[in-house]
Amino acid sequence: MDRRPIRRLRPDPGATPIADGLWPATVPAVAHVLRKGIELQAGVTVLVGENGSGKSTLVEVIAAAVGLNAEGGSGGAQHRTRASEPGSLGLIVERGPGAPRWAYLLRDETLHGLYSYLEENRSWHRVEPRFHELSHGEAFLSIFHDRATQPGLYLLDEPDAALSFTATLSLLAALKDLAADGAQVVIATHSPVLAALPGAHLLEVGPWGIRAAAWDELELTANWRQFLRAPESFLRHLG
Questions:
Q1: pTM for the complete prediction?
Q2: Residue 131: inside a domain, yes or no?
Q3: DSSP H helix total and E strand total for the chain
Q4: What is the CATH number of the domain that holds 163?
Q5: Positive or negative CA dihedral for 236, 233, 56, 137?
Q6: Is residue 3 domain-resident?
Q7: Rounded Cα–Cα distance for residues 56 and 127 (Å)
Q8: Which residues, 6+ apart, have CB-to-CB distance to 27 below 8 Å?
């Protein structure tokens, strides 16, 4: 039985279209979704692309479409700094029958606010660590391991920003187990390590919109491979 939390996001034909030339419709990946929608596979989907390509914006749109706090946490998280996200863009969520409704968002750029919110609103049944007293990576992994314990939808925006190489491998192992237990995960990342997760569905975003890709074919992979093989080929251009 297909119990994906999200089968597909599709445009609502009755929604007011975004005017031409206005953000975020000017982002090719977002324009792609507004025209054609996007199907999310079971297991882990990894979005890769350059800064400004729209991968984080897509994560924010998905989060809004399923009712999550745009700055991180679950749907019930009540914390906010400055509204800058695009919202759901009127997209309709198609779910699998009997799909789990639990969902959680972790965004690197808003984790400070989430840490504060969780510390100030401790549940009676939960003993939260003092996130601000942990390293960035330790706090991220603490929240992830505590919340990602059941089938549902997990959205991770640039988790690699918080993690060392070893910690990234630890996250990979946890994601593999989470997907095996029936969870659905969407990750936006610059990390070729996370993109190498076995069984992950890779989507490369850029001027073309969104396209499926293989790890060996990613520009991300090629650039890192070349840099690690011969860093001087890049560094000589620094001036």
A1: 0.92
A2: yes
A3: 8, 9
A4: 3.40.50
A5: negative
A6: no
A7: 30
A8: 52, 53, 54, 57
Per the structure, how many domains does the chain have?
1
Residue 225 lies in a domain: no
Residue 99 DSSP SS3: coil
Burial of 125 from C-beta contacts in 10 A (0-12 / 13-18 / 19+): exposed
CA 46 to chain centroid: 8
Tens-of-pLDDT digits for all 239 residues of the chain? 788 999 999 998 888 878 778 899 899 999 999 999 999 999 999 999 999 999 999 999 999 999 998 889 988 887 777 777 888 898 999 998 888 999 999 999 888 889 888 888 876 556 677 888 889 999 999 999 989 999 999 999 999 999 999 999 999 999 999 999 999 999 999 999 999 999 999 999 999 999 999 999 999 999 999 999 999 988 887 86
Q: Which residues, in sequence order, are bridge partners of residue 188?
A: 47, 157
- Angle at 80 (CA atoms; ends 53, 112), nearest 5 degrees: 75
231 is a domain residue: no
Strand order in the sheet with 184-189: 103-107, 153-157, 184-189, 43-48, 201-206, 209-213
For residue 85, give its domain range.
Answer: 8-214
Structure tokens, 134: 């942990």
Nearest to 179 by CA among 82, 44, 59: 44
Could you give the 3-state DSSP secondary structure of residue 205?
strand
Task: Give whole-number Cα distances, 165 to 133, 170, 191, in Å.
Answer: 21, 9, 10
